[in-house]
Amino acid sequence: MRADQPLGTRARQSINKPAKPKSFKPVKAAAKAPRTERPNLHNNATAALRVTAPAPIQQQPEVAIPAWMSKVAPAWSGVWLAGLALLVSYGTLTLLVVVALVSSGGAAATGWAAAAGVAARIWLLGHGGAASFGNMPITLFPLGFAFCYVAMFRLCVRSAANRAAARGVTNFPQFITVFTATAIYGFITMFVSSSIGQHVTENLKAGFGASIVALLAFVWAFRKDLKAANLFALDKYSWQRFLPLAFLRQILPMISAGLVAAALALLGAIASGALLVGLWAFLGREATATVVAGLSPGWVGGVLLGLAQLAYVPNWIIWAMSWLAGPGFAIGADTLFSPAAHMGGPLPALPLMAALPPESWTGVPALFSPVVFLILGACCGWVLWRRLKENTYQMLGSTVLCALVAGLGMAFLQHAAAGGIGLARLSVLGAQPWLVAAIFAAEVLVGSLVVVGSLAAGAWSAARKDRRAVGN
Known about the structure:
By secondary structure, this protein is mainly alpha-helical. It has 2 domains: 156 residues, no CATH class; 220 residues, no CATH class.
């Protein structure tokens, strides 16, 4: 407004002018937080580095291991493995025996020492030894228990290998570890066998069976490492300079192919026997139910009875292999179960006894059962042809080697599955090992030669036609 404007005009303008709203000031905080000063990194770089630098790590001095301790450690690992496997297998079996005694109410009458003795005898049977329960000697090897012992030993070996890897040990197990574990485990089994009064032959048999259990556990635990080791590479061995290397390089493919074909034949025979036992068990399911109902073992007794039956199922499978081969097997003295004859007799009331070939299977149709192993031999011949078709002599040598190794494997299995229970009729159980092995080897050889000869003749005929075509 100008200075020369009348006063009334100024008054009217101030009255008409709207009033300004009042402004409210915010309430101040009672106390302010102290200001944090940031370090001046440009001017005080040394201080900043001193704050952020980590504290120095004090290295502990390495403890020198004596030379004798490093040499003894692999052997001590083998001793520890054998003891651990013994503790796991025998402890598990003792627990089952104690449960059986408690469920039957005989623990107070027999005592815990007697339970430990029963467990020791069953543990010995599972390693191929013999044991006596009162006046009843048992020499029948429960192969199912042996498989369980192999699995337990393998679990101990893998646990030791994992502990060694955690400590930075890369060369576990060494040869001395495997040798010590196998030897100690075998000697412990021989000591247990001799402590219960068995014959020297039975003691050696038990020690050999325990050594086989330990070796199979190591092979199972480190099967991938063994496959990657390429054991057939002769150049890495120091003793190769003493051998005719060229000759060995020629026969090694033949040996390798023959062993592979023999393993195929044995695995195929085991699978065929398992299928046959399954069929027999299915056909005898009503008789099995009747036997179980007559026994009425209860739920604890039923579990233990089932475990005892499963322990001898592998024996039944091997006996079924002898039935397929032709000679058959015996369940007691003066008995025979084969495709050509069925001579039975009184059998114990056990569920597994219902899984036997029925009498209706004897006759002309059953005589064609050896054809199964002839077909198996034909498959082995095809494998040999695929691996060695460029060398006829190697192929023929591998065929003979396949039949020989397969026969020896069959003899070993039949011998391991045979035995006896008691001194009466059941003292003869199983098949005749060498007879079954000879017939099985002959069937594999004939089947292999038929396929190898047919394929070789076809290849020779095709090559001859090609030569004629080129000549024309």
